[in-house]
Amino acid sequence: MKLATALAICSSAAHAFEARLETTADDDLAKRLRAASAVIEAADTEVTAPEEIIAAVQSDYRTLIGTLYREGYYGPRISIRVDGREGASMSLISLPSQVQSVVIEVTPGPRFVFGETTVAPLASGTELPEDFKRGEVAHSYLVGDATEAAIESWREASHAKAVRKDQSIIADHPEKTLDVDVEIDPGPAVKFGKLQFAGKTTVREGRLSRIANLPTGSSYHPDKLDLVTKRLQKTGTFRSITLREAEELNADGTLDITATLIDDKPRRLGFGAELSSLEGGTLSAYWMHRNITDNADRLRFDAEISGIGGTNEIDATLSASYRRPATVTRKTTLVLAAELEHLNEPDYTSDIGEFTFGFDVETSPNSTFYAGLGYRYSQVEDDLGSRDFSYIILPIEGSRDTRDNSLNPTRGTYFEADITPFLSLNEAASGVRIFADGRSYISFGGDDRFTLAGRVQLGSISGADYTDVSTDMLFFSGGGGTVRGQPYQSLGVDLGSGDEIGGSSFLGLSGELRAKVKGNISAVGFYDLGGIGTTALPGEDAEWHAGAGLGLRYNTGFGPIRLDLAGPVSGDTGDGLQIYIGIGQAF
């Protein structure tokens, strides 16, 4: 038997009481018991009212037993004495004037293991918890997890009304085993019925049905309901979306669904800021009008000013977009966009106007696809002179995002690719611009303390020489989005005599190791590598530079505040320390 452990929490208040836990449990279990105890929490927070203390005492019997059951102890003895009296026998009507001490005595008894474990019937392919089997520690929560897994598998097999029909749990104290027998009633296979709407929304019901696109008449699957929710969320119109299944099936065996919707505020104004020691500050703002024509459509204006206080002159961007979901088909969103941009980059200046229309197409819950047609005009002044470019463009974009959190990912992957054929309307060359960005995240260690993040960026222009393409479409390397520690867009193609221009290709590699330090604070070590080439194949005939550094993150709940300090480790494009501040991880 282990020595008893004890916790005493005292207060200097006039009527404070002492709470003490005495148990033969090991240190880990004792810690869990302390954390679960309402009495110890009351002492810790200096509760003095006798009625509150006695209520906490009486709730602790059930709470502590539940804690022990979760850890596999089914023969415990618990005594909670209030100034020497057993708390279970005390009445909340006749209370002492004050409480001096509470002593909690817990003898866990032996730890049980599972004996017979049966959950039946099971749908094909059901995977029960790995530890829910004979000989494993009989954690009580595994019984619930196994039951939920069985029911969820039946629901995924179209049996929407699957429930637990019966349950038998027997603790064999002489053998120290727990036998579990759970009977599942799968119910009938179900098809989707009607999608009905409730709540406070001004979007017309016909439009809601078209956007949600519930496959009425098809076999039930909970993932299809998740997809309906995501379609409605994607519009940005609603503050709250709740899908509820009907209690009873229809006479024909179909299941109706009710979507309760609450509109978000129609207009919203937002701001953002970022700071780099060399690139300067960036200020951004947007104004958005939701549900502008009661079709769950959205009009948005964005403005951004960058390079404030930096080594280059200020850049400015003004853009507008209009999105209308379920246009032409149920799975396509009409997108109209216009953008005006003035760039003062290290090696060129450019005034750009771009106008596009196209469609976002739903491909899967985690993937997006866009195809459009547009016109792009740019007036560029660089080391090759002053030139005008006029293009018909056909932008094609796709992405897949399985990250657990877009601002602070710890698991999953992200990939996006842009392919833009451009047809010149003047003497410039025509070709195709390609850019891809892939990211992956793996966490390990206790409580996922460490996260390893990797990123690969690829850029290429084919069909046209880099000297015959608008400079703002070419590739540069350096700065917060490519190689930290190197000056912004400091690496391009050397034309000789000190002249420089962007390249036909870009290859960027980045790695980060993120480690939780304490509470909301994390530390980061990173290394970035970038290469610019004169051919369409990334990495071929390329000039390279690299940067590395350390950073801190403070998790605010909605995203970490980022501080990175970086310097060059190879290449001749820069020297000295660079500082980057922003919201969200670097990638």
From TrEMBL:
<keyword id="KW-0812">Transmembrane</keyword>
<feature type="domain" description="Bacterial surface antigen (D15)">
    <location>
        <begin position="303"/>
        <end position="587"/>
    </location>
</feature>
<dbReference type="InterPro" id="IPR039910">
    <property type="entry name" value="D15-like"/>
</dbReference>
<dbReference type="Pfam" id="PF01103">
    <property type="entry name" value="Omp85"/>
</dbReference>
<dbReference type="InterPro" id="IPR000184">
    <property type="entry name" value="Bac_surfAg_D15"/>
</dbReference>
<dbReference type="GO" id="GO:0019867">
    <property type="term" value="C:outer membrane"/>
</dbReference>
<keyword id="KW-0472">Membrane</keyword>
<keyword id="KW-1134">Transmembrane beta strand</keyword>
<protein>
    <submittedName>
        <fullName>Autotransporter assembly complex family protein</fullName>
    </submittedName>
</protein>
